[in-house]
Amino acid sequence: MTLELSNAAAFNWPVRVYYEDTDAGGVVFYANYLKFFERARTEFLRSYGFEQDVLMAEQGVIFVVRSVKIDYLRPARFNEQLAVSAKVIEIKKTSLTFEQTVTRQEQILCTGEVRIACLDAQTMKPKPIPSVILEQLN
Hints:
Blueprint: E1 2-4, E2 11-16, H1 32-47, H2 52-59, E3 61-72, E4 81-92, E5 95-104, E6 107-120, H3 131-137
């Protein structure tokens, strides 16, 4: 099962750049964009009523990053307010692919594509995404 979602709406999450997010040059350290992406995906799931700890306890599943493709276009700096988007663009039996962006006002700073895999929390092997999640996403 593969479902392409080209016209799905993007979820947006506000992020402020803290001093700890920056490097010696005063710009956001490259790896921290991945943390911003992670927060937006977590809040995306939460917006549908799914808490990851509850999914682990009740459904026996966890989501892990399988792959990331990222492009850095412009720097973000200390104390700026950013928006981080998360949009599901593909649903497979055991994975979701997100298109993500970090923007400052209308300016795109970073883009990425993140594939997360659904795993059995005990065995750490791929497990089908629970139907309750798929129903909400479709």
